[in-house]
Every structure is written in structure tokens, then in C-alpha cells.
Design goal:
alpha/beta; 260 residues
């Protein structure tokens, strides 16, 4: 990862979601199909499972430019943002929820094959704990690898992803928590196109009981490493002229942010 951005209160203008969402869905469609194919092969296998093989195939390390971290409640806006990046800048976004959704599906396949008690009507608590830890570790590791690989991370900081009090910001999503921690500690990787030139400016990085679920919150790390941006920043990026015909779209974004 080279740069990370904290996009606060992303609230697209009327028509934005409808215009770009379908294109965003297309960006992640190929990944979804690869995942489904692998899950089908896992379901038909009775051999011992290879965790590394499952992780690599379940979560293909695609060539994406931008990693979008977001709440599942904002999925439509997120898909539209991914579509906008593709249409306007030809940038490929990796939408993290396109992977989250398969955690439960993969767990069901493994649990049905390996964790049923005799009689096949209930699951072993101990075996389910173990299978869950494996799947969530594979998912977390794969997401970390993708954050490290992509050049840019955009965190959609909305009331659905983070709640705040006067002292600390918190999230109820373990995935958002893990991604923000990773974004704060991952090594900065300078893009190849920058290694032979000097950047003109640098960015500061400054119900019923049965239905109840445990409500767990994570105090997120300070977001100093993620530069604050807004919808106005995105509009300025969209309208900014390029210094040269071959200027990379993300370099235009970095320039726009640095000029503010």
C-alpha cells in the first residue's frame, strides 16, 4: 500500500448509485465466479483440506489498484464507487465485502462435511470452533495480503462503519477493525513509476434470547495514516486536468489532495 484515505460520510448525489453500481458489480463478478467454483470443489472433496490451497483459490490475489473497506450496510454505494473508479479512471477496485460473504458459505460446507455429530442433526461445538478459527484466519490473512498489494486504500467512514463518542471511535465489524489495523502498520510501497522521479509534494499521513447476538465493539486505531478526503475531493479529482497524457489517475488524486 502506498496511500490510504479516510472518506468521511460518503453520501453520493442522486443518481450516482444507479449510474455506476452495475459496473461496480461487474468488477467483482469474475472473482465471485472463481470463489464459487472453488467452493464447489471443496464440497465434493472428502480428503484432508489444504488451508493454503483453499485460501489462494478461495481468494484470488487479483490485480487491483484500490482496496475499498466499508460496512456491508453501504454495499450499494460502495459498488457504485467501484464502478465510478472503473468508468472514469480505469482503476480496478477490490471490494472487501465480495469476500466477506463467502466466509459463512465456506463454513457451512466445511461444517456439514466434518463437524456434524452422530445422527447428522447437530454440530459439534468443539469442531465448529476449530473450523471457524481456520476460515476466519484464512480470510483475515487474505485481506491483509490484498491491502499490502494494492496501491491505495479508501475507507468509507460512515455511521454504519464507525460509531464515535467524545473519547474514542469504535466499530462493531471485526473485518473493518482488522483492515484499519493492517492499514496502519503495513509497509509503504512506492509505485514503480515513482521510483525514478521525485514527487512534487508529499501527503501528510496524519428480541428473544435465542435471537440475540453478542454485541462486540473494537476501539479502532487512530486514523492518522489515512488522509481525510470527502466527496468534494472526489469531484475535484474527476475534474482535475492531467499534467501529461500518461499521468496515472492515482497520481492526479495524490496531487489534488496535496494541493488542499
Amino acid at each position: 500500500m502506498f496511500k490510504g484515505f479516510n472518506l468521511k460520510d460518503f453520501n453520493p448525489i442522486a443518481g450516482f448509485v444507479e449510474k455506476y453500481r452495475d459496473r461496480g458489480e461487474l468488477v467483482t463478478a469474475a472473482n465471485r465466479q472463481a470463489v464459487r467454483t472453488k467452493l464447489a470443489s471443496i464440497a465434493s472433496s472428502s480428503a484432508s483440506l489444504d488451508g493454503t490451497d483453499i485460501q489462494n483459490a478461495w481468494f484470488p490475489q487479483v490485480n487491483a489498484d484500490v482496496f475499498i473497506s466499508h460496512s456491508h450496510r453501504n454495499v450499494d454505494a460502495t459498488m457504485a464507487l467501484a464502478g465510478w473508479l472503473k468508468v472514469e479512471f480505469n482503476l480496478t477496485a477490490f471490494v472487501d465485502s465480495s469476500v466477506w460473504g463467502y466466509a459463512g458459505e465456506l463454513l457451512r460446507l466445511i461444517d456439514t462435511a466434518y463437524c456434524l455429530n452422530p445422527g447428522g442433526k447437530t454440530y459439534s461445538y468443539e469442531k465448529r470452533n476449530e473450523s471457524t478459527s481456520h476460515v476466519h484466519m484464512m480470510l483475515s490473512t487474505a485481506l491483509n495480503m490484498m491491502i499490502d498489494k494494492t496501491e491505495c486504500l479508501i475507507f468509507l467512514n460512515t455511521p454504519d462503519s464507525i460509531s464515535s463518542d467524545e473519547i474514542v471511535e469504535k466499530t462493531k465489524s471485526p473485518w473493518i477493525y482488522a483492515e484499519l489495523v493492517t492499514a496502519g502498520i503495513v509497509q509503504t510501497r512506492t509505485p514503480d513509476r515513482h521510483r525514478s522521479i521525485k514527487l512534487s509534494a508529499s501527503l501528510s499521513t496524519n428480541e428473544s434470547v435465542r435471537d440475540k447476538m453478542a454485541s462486540i465493539e473494537y476501539a479502532i486505531p487512530r486514523l492518522d495514516r489515512l488522509t481525510k478526503i470527502s466527496v468534494d475531493t472526489l469531484n475535484a479529482w474527476d475534474n482535475a486536468p492531467r499534467i501529461a497524457d500518461d499521468e496515472h489517475p492515482l497520481d492526479v488524486l495524490y496531487r489534488v489532495v496535496a494541493s488542499k
